[in-house]
Description:
The protein is of the alpha/beta class and 213 residues long. It is 23% helix and 33% strand. The chain is globular, with a radius of gyration of 17 Å.
Amino acid sequence: xxxxxxxxxxxxxxxxxxxxxxxxxxxxxxxxxxxxxxxxxxxxxxxxxxxxxxxxxxxxxxxxxxxxxxxxxxxxxxxxxxxxxxxxxxxxxxxxxxxxxxxxxxxxxxxxxxxxxxxxxxxxxxxxxxxxxxxxxxxxxxxxxxxxxxxxxxxxxxxxxxxxxxxxxxxxxxxxxxxxxxxxxxxxxxxxxxxxxxxxxxxxxxxxxxxxx
Length: 213
């Protein structure tokens, strides 16, 4: 299936680019009118590296980081962020750190967790939470609470796109915001105006991508 996606490039770095498609889509938590495709920045090493550099700049001079918790398949970006942050030539506050890049697991109850062998990478560590897209912040809150449960200290939240400015009192450091997508809207499923107008949901979308209905 060919999707008519439109490129949206960051003013900070044109290689940090996403693709967008307007319509009626359902996520696990909401209905949205714009699908944001992150495939390029999450999987192509050159675009992922440039995206990571933009996000890492927000933390180089002011925030020591020990671990990056990656959500939404952002491990490649997280690895490049760790490399940038740990580079001694950047004068980073994290340049001496052997930064862990880890992904949480979900148990059968839908709870986020870390296995015993990875908990040492959270406990007493400065933890940055990295996501691809933040719509309501529900998953980010879950990640924050999970890291706190295992004894971590949350030092930041970063994303490629975020529709919210702050989560848990922290500013979300992001490349794209609602200013870049002024028509982007997210609704609770029972409040979705597109549903009330009788418009069918075109696809289910999540961090893995787009599945047409």
